[in-house]
Amino acid sequence: MRRRRALGRWLPVLAMLVWLLGPGLAQATVYEFSGKDVYTCTLAEKEKVYTCPYPAYLEWNDSVIIGNNYTLKVTNNVTVTYNQGLTMGNNAKLIVTGNLDIKGVNPANLKVSGGDIEVGGTFSMGALAQTITGNISAGAVQLGTDRVTITGNVTSKGVVNISSSSRITGNVSGTVVTTDSSVTITGDVKATSKFTLASGGSVTGDVIAPVFDMLASNSKVTGDITATTSLTMGTGSTVTGSINTAVLDMQASGIKVTGPVTATKSMSIGSGNSVTGNVDTGDLVLQSSNAIITGNARVNWATLESQGRVTGIIYCKNGTAVGKCDCVTNNSGYAVNTANGPRCEGPAPKAPHHFLITHDGAGDTCVPEKVTITACANATCTAPHYAGTVTGSLFGDGFTIGANTGSVVVNATRFVAGSVDLVVGNTTLPTACYRPNNNTNSCSMNFSGGTKLKLTVPAHAAGTNGIKALIEAVKPNDEKTACVAALQNTTHDVQYRCNYSKPKTGTLALALGDKSLSCEASGVTADPKTVSTAFGANGSAELAIKYLDAGEVQLNATLTTEKGTVNGTGSLVTAPASFLIEPAGGIIRAGADFALKLTARNVAGATTQNFDTAGLLGAGAQNHVVALGVDCHLQGGNLGTLASAPPTFAKGVASFSAAWSDVGNIDMKASLSNFLGSGLNVASSTAEVGQCSGKAGPFIPAYFQVELADARSFYYSGEPFPLRVSAMNKAGAVTSNYATALKLSEEVTLTANDKDGNAFATAPGGLANAKIAADKFENGVAPHKPAYTFSTWPSAPTRIRLRASNGKTDGADVSSSVPASAEAAIPLIRTGRLRIGSRFGGLKTSLTIPLTAEYWTGKSWLLNSDDVYTLIPQSTIALKPTVSGMAILPSYPIEPGHPGKLKLANGATAFDLRVTAGGPGPVEIAVNLGNSMMDNSCIGATVGTGLNTAPGAGIPWLRPVVTGCGTTMARDPSGRATFGVYTPENRRIIHVREVFN
């Protein structure tokens, strides 16, 4: 062990010299912990560990450097102030057994780039926008009030509080973890008691907490959530991952969960919210309206309010009658067992009960016959069907029924004419059959032999040129083991007919070869058209085919030869080639409805009128719903959420309302997947080819939300108070794209009105720092600190209402004037002053000096008992004996969490003074409430004590206005402690009277 003894002997002399010469000559000192000797500290060289008491010798502008791989252990509380510095190298470690407060350090002086910080008490940072790289562990962690950036893990034995717009790249853990708005955490979060994610916050990682509160709007988690007690979600929140909890409350609206959900006790889904994934819960409530679960739900009981839907099966854990929903209170407006209504079954089976083959009883050899195979979950094969994956075979050809599909269409091909019983092979499950044409359960299918025609047309976009219909003449070979070509190298007049299938009616003709076929409605025999058809050496022919509309059309072919009649059937599916997307023009409020029009078009751009929702539904068609989305964001921001009901097309056109959740310009997309099961996909966008054009918009905020960022009950005149201004959409969610990085934020002006939001007839004061620069907005939120100062000192308390506005007109204006709830910042402003009580006492007694905060009621000064916030650094208290040789010693109370400071409690605090040498005589006392090196109090006719109390308390709003020292101005408070002189009340003589005769 080594000590810097020589420096210790000379330090008092050097300190006195600095004092005598004046503070202007004091030089900053850098204390480097990298193997060198440091005053009052011991070094364990092998372990590279320094151990130091509280570094009281640090001057106001000194700094500390902890070298690579070295550890500094301080056995006390540590506060690092604005002009001081802290630098930590790679693998450096700072251990503080008490509290560590670095929140006031100038960010330029804080250079932590890869070390660890361990704090026994509370770790505090972030009164300024500070950044560190390193792991933090502490008894409690306080980050804020400005934004903080930490790259490393944050571990607390107690609470973790994270300030607005902060970013943490690492895991966060504590008992209670609480974020302010727009906090970004990239890592896991673990709270042993509760985790609160505020408005606009995001977590990319897993969350584990008994209670998880996402109640504030527009928060996001990408990861799995385990909340053993409860999870509450607010407007616009999203979760991408699994959820495991006891109680899940998804409050209205715009909440999206993508992943499976287990809520063992209950689950409530508010209006407009959705879950994409299977749900397992006790009691399920889908609130009015449009609460949707896309998946299955296992429940004890479900209540479906208006337009509430479960697209899959509701499995009643306690059972239900066949065809009933005995575990559902159905107020959805959709009947049980309808397309949108609930469909229920008992507990989901672990395997299918049997297979059901649905067929028409007749087929042709060598022509695929379509049959439907269903994996039944019960003996009667009522829906819901088996939800798992199952395989089998028919006539030796394998098939798979996918998860949550329940059935599959199989093409059955036979070579031998005659009757055969259909049965599913490669399974131990039994087979049952159903023939809807005669309503029997026969499994017998009769295949007719001879030559047949197979008509095949590839699915394509409506109006496409160059499409060929393939007509194949086939027959079984003599051995009845394969199909071979027929009608080779012959030309025949074949009669062709067409019928509308999906929809069942239409208006446009179908061109086949050189003829135009007039199609009839489904079930009506159409007039045939004869088309010369040349069959080649392989027995096949091709004819040009073109259909200008969308949907499915049935084709029939008949050929009469000397050997008999040859028949064949086929179908044609054409999808819209594109969708014309026409959003309303002009400025649109985020989250508000705007008009939107979609037109289904063919290749030539003509409307495909048979793309008609009612007609397709009436024909039992599937896979025809058009999905809407955001294709791109012109400014490069988040794509947000585009909300609307599924478009309903009438004669190829859908006109409806939609709403987009964020700000900026977007291009919208419309997509159609696997149209009618054909495999055809359609995707259209308003974007130009290869670039984003932003044809929808501009979208602007619906309003500004103005909130106080803390829970104070009052603020002093001239005191900056923390605000949070958020750009909101109409649904009450933060528009995260309102940010300077995207050039979408604007300068916002704050104004102060009366408490009811009306302009003051005569304003009692003015608002300073009323402009919020555009670059202050990040993720839609701007922290700000204005101050309201009364014009006259003192003035009576006044409550003001803060309003934010962008100052625009003509529909581009955004303000917080409506809704009324948007202006939640209505602070009470008081004129305040700090008083120092003067005291008298004996030379050897200890005097208690009171410090009290007072406010002006309009008539008198009263103790401000609401002030439990003001902090006064001990270093700002100037103590100046007026008698030569007199020395004093202050004794300050210990404030937990605020080392080196006095904290007001109910408006008051105090400290003790005693004389250690010299006296008797008075001691002048002043508190430097400003930001300069010395106080400016008025003591007699002298300005200030002349003592260095830098950098000052930084709370000038508590300076009283004093007339003296040649001026009337706000000055630091002063008082006097007089030792060896008693007040008249303490003298032994009670009364003296002098009589002159």
How are the SSEs ordered, and which strands pair?
Blueprint: H1 5-21, E1 30-33, E2 42-44, E3 49-52, E4 63-66, E5 71-74, E6 78-79, E7 85-88, E8 93-96, E9 100-101, E10 110-125, E11 130-143, E12 148-151, E13 154-156, E14 160-162, E15 167-169, E16 172-179, E17 184-186, E18 189-196, E19 202-204, E20 207-208, E21 211-214, E22 220-222, E23 225-233, E24 238-240, E25 243-250, E26 256-258, E27 261-269, E28 274-276, E29 279-286, E30 292-294, E31 297-299, E32 301-304, E33 309-310, E34 314-316, E35 328-330, E36 344-345, E37 354-358, E38 362-364, E39 369-376, E40 390-394, E41 397-401, E42 407-412, E43 418-421, E44 431-434, E45 444-448, E46 452-456, E47 460-461, E48 468-476, E49 483-485, E50 490-502, E51 510-512, E52 515-517, E53 529-535, E54 540-547, E55 551-561, E56 564-575, E57 578-583, E58 588-589, E59 593-601, H2 613-618, E60 627-633, E61 642-643, E62 653-660, E63 664-672, E64 682-685, E65 696-700, E66 703-708, E67 715-716, E68 723-728, E69 748-754, E70 765-768, E71 771-772, E72 781-784, E73 787-790, E74 798-805, E75 828-830, E76 832-836, E77 839-841, E78 847-856, ...
Parallel strand pairs: 1-4, 3-5, 4-7, 5-8, 6-9, 7-10, 8-10, 9-10, 10-11, 11-12, 11-13, 11-14, 12-15, 13-16, 14-16, 15-17, 16-18, 17-19, 18-20, 18-21, 19-22, 20-23, 21-23, 22-24, 23-25, 24-26, 25-27, 26-28, 27-29, 28-30, 29-31, 29-32, 30-33, 31-34, 32-35, 34-36, 37-44, 38-45, 46-56, 47-56, ...
Antiparallel strand pairs: 2-3, 37-39, 39-42, 40-41, 43-45, 46-48, 48-49, 48-54, 50-53, 50-55, 51-52, 51-54, 55-56, 57-59, 59-62, 60-63, 61-62, 63-64, 63-65, 66-68, 68-72, 69-71, 69-74, 70-73, 74-75, 76-78, 78-79, 78-84, 80-83, 81-85, 82-84, 85-90, 86-87, 88-89
